[in-house]
What we know:
Layout: H1 3-22, H2 29-49, H3 56-68, E1 76-78, H4 80-91, E2 93-96, E3 99-104, E4 107-113, H5 118-121, E5 129-133, E6 136-137, H6 143-147, E7 157-164, E8 167-174, E9 176-179, E10 185-188, E11 193-197, H7 205-218, E12 223-227, H8 236-244, E13 252-258, E14 266-268, E15 280-284, H9 291-301, E16 306-309, E17 317-323, E18 329-338, E19 369-371, E20 377-379, E21 388-389, H10 397-404, H11 407-418, H12 432-444, H13 452-462, H14 471-490, H15 493-521, H16 523-533, H17 535-542
Parallel strand pairs: 11-12, 12-15, 15-16, 16-21
Antiparallel strand pairs: 1-18, 2-9, 3-4, 4-5, 5-6, 5-7, 7-8, 10-11, 13-14, 13-18, 17-18, 19-20
Amino acid sequence: MNNFSIKKHFLFTLAIGAIFLSFSFKSNFFEVAKQLEIYTTLFKELNLYYVDEINPAEFTNKAIKNTLKELDPYTNYFDEQEVEEARIRREGEYSGIGASVFYDKKGITLNEVYKGYEADKKGLKAGDIIIKVGNQYLKNMDRDQLSQQLKGAPNTSLDISILRQGKVIDKTIVTEKIEINPVPFYDLIDQETGYIVLTRFNQKASSEVKKAFLDLKKRGMTTLIFDLRNNPGGSLGEAIKISNFFLPKGSKITSTKAKVRKWSTTYNASKVALDLDIPLTILVNRNSASASEIVAGALQDYDRAIIVGERSFGKGLVQRYRNLSYGTQLKLTISKYYTPSGRCIQELDYANRDNKGEVPKFSDGTVTAFKTKNGRVVFDGGGITPDVVVGFSKRNEFTKALLKSRAIFNFTTDFYYKNPTISSIDNFSFSSSNFKSFLNYIKTSDTTFKTSQERLFLDAFKSVSKPKLISSEYQEIKKKLLQAKIENISKDQDFISALIMENILIRYFYKKGTYENKLKKDKVLLEALKILKNKNHYTKILNGA
């Protein structure tokens, strides 16, 4: 490493020191300087004497990210490349082919193809694996290399080869500007009930919700179901604007409390509301987080909406981006937010991990009661609890392991190619016989779904010096573990079937098809509709009767 590289690295370590200084309550300048000097001298010794060459950027990147793991999962460091990816997520625009993807050793697998964009127009399908771009084969590339393959300025032509059901197909695709609409669907359920889905709080969220709301009002909407299920959040500002659509100007929507005084702020509705009277239900589930919880919590506290569904995720932490040296960034947790009644709905207590690194839950301890505008009792800790609870059974550990695998995705691909057509969107359902087919697929074809017990058992078997001696016992135990897995995920059949059905509908009818199906078959949505149809019941819930 030359002197310039060492000097550049030393300057970068100064930036690290600034990070530690900014969010350590106990640190002082001397302690930061001391630790910085230790790190710098350690790196110098490694660089001079370690037997192999050390990459300074990679070394420091790992050091920073390992340090941040001790805090919360929302405090992250971004190198120059990751800064651009984070900006794309916030703004909802990027250049690409119009598909979501995941990466593995085979190449780039298409997870979902967006209707009307280049991938769709060229006939690409979910489940296709891009194995070659130009003259470059993608097998065994790392994730960072794969992520760059389909990027480029709009109108960049790419020759690709895809693997589909064992056959290689060559295509030429052209990158284009992709805009992610945070409102992928809205419509009238009947002559008077509107339905708006918001999937993320990017910079277009409030404008798209407003556009959908005003269009539905023109078409005769007099009641509204606002779906925030599976919405992980995003912009605090957008959450405040959307809350303001249904709350009077001047209403307190949320407040934040931070170590830095200027970041402890109260956010009030600053504009005239779109509608202060329309009966409103908000749908949430355990994946509704952050900005979704700000909206749901504010409207619940003012008794402005009835919350229906499952308890939300419980993310009461606010992040902010801070620019660092050389085009890098730090996204760090700067404050906690509170609903108008004073609730902090943060679920996980990252500041008090136990000796094993496990994070305790606030909801497992003492929770505090608060009151809404009408005097209804609500609680802090552990997300937003719905006024009307409707959902699926609690997912067991086996189902959680299933969701982390690609078994459902792979089964859906298999189903799609075995069934060229399916019944209409309205009538399609994933039947008990379909679920049995899924279980059979897990038994005979899937290689991705492994429980922790199975992994431990396989690791133990691999360590045996003479495995042939216990081959029959191995097969017997393996069979029992598989059976236990099947029995346990079967307990969550209702939830898994609904998830598979949604994945199947996307393959045939795009995302729009899943929402059209929900209008007829989604039990949470139908319960919200039932509540809105019974005006006396709606009023009684809001009055705590």
